[in-house]
């Protein structure tokens, strides 16, 4: 249960940090103060940076089943980001749904992609970690004979 609370907490942070960073780029009338393309680039970099940092932090304590963990984390974080956007951008700020999907929502699909790829990269580590244990068991059993 604690593992899922950590995944959810980190997922909220993947949404919250870029949201807070975005606030100074808008005026009181919810008008963007800089070029839209520059803003979206900044948000992509901030989101990727915080997401990757939290993913590394999470995987440092994960043990085995890395690919499955990457899938789980990626899907949960994606759903959290969509849910929190639905509550803020769609309900509170009244952004049109179709504009949201084209400008923001679809970009969140990178979250599970990065998480799954990280898990896939770490998956061979499971086999490497198991080999020394097998060798130690063989040495131990060989000494007894």
Short key terms for the protein model shown above:
145 residues; mainly alpha; elongated
Notes on the protein architecture:
The chain has 145 residues and is mainly α. It has one domain. It is elongated, with a radius of gyration of 20 Å. It has helices at 2-22, 36-61, 66-92, 97-103, 110-144. The N and C termini lie far apart (44 Å). α1 (2-22) runs antiparallel to α2 (36-61), α2 (36-61) packs parallel to α5 (110-144) and α3 packs antiparallel against α5.
Spatial shape: elongated
Strand residue content: under 5%
Unreliable stretches covering 5 or more consecutive residues: none
Mean pLDDT: 89
- H-E string: HHHHH
User: What summary fits the major beta sheet?
Assistant: none
What structural class should be given to the helix and strand makeup? mainly alpha
Count the E strands: 0
Tell me the radius of gyration: 20 Å
Distance separating the two termini? 44 Å
Number of discrete domains: 1
* Count of helix runs: 5
Helix content: over 70%
